[in-house]
Amino acid sequence: QVQLVESGGGLVQPGGSLRLSCAASGGTVSTYGAAWFRQALGKEREILAGINPSGDTAVFPDSVKGRFTISRDNAKNTVYLHMNNLRLDDTAIYYCALSIPGRGDYDYWGQGTQVTVSS
Questions:
Q1: Reduced DSSP (H G I as helix, E B as strand, rest coil) percent helix, strand, coil of the chain, to 5
Q2: Residue pair 103/36 in contact by the 8 Å Cβ criterion
């Protein structure tokens, strides 16, 4: 059973940066599609960025393009979300998830890490 543990969240001022980590156990992260999501209070969950087994990446919402990137360290079996120039509306719980290739859904989820952007 694959388990995911996110870390790296916390309180940051507007304009600051954070790097979120998603460490996997029970499976090799590079054999899955991986993605980061977030859910703000009272809002629906949204996908932010994804990386496929080949290492191709994509960032989805216009609100984070140019500020967020996704990467993967195969040796550490970890996926990262690099967030720069954080804004107040980036405050949310951030989740990572893995998808078995060929499936249309995400099969494994982490517990989430809180990111709060506040002055």
A1: 5, 50, 45
A2: no
**Amino acid code (one letter) for 83:** M
In 3D, which of 3, 40, 10, 7 has the Cα closest to residue 25? 3
Predicted confidence (pLDDT) per residue in 33-67, tens digit: 999 999 999 999 999 999 999 999 998 999 999 99
Are 78 and 22 in contact, with CB atoms under 8 Å apart? yes
What does pLDDT average to over the chain?
96
The tokens of 30 are what?
């590079």
Residue 29's DSSP bridge partners are: none
Helix, strand, or coil (residue 88): helix
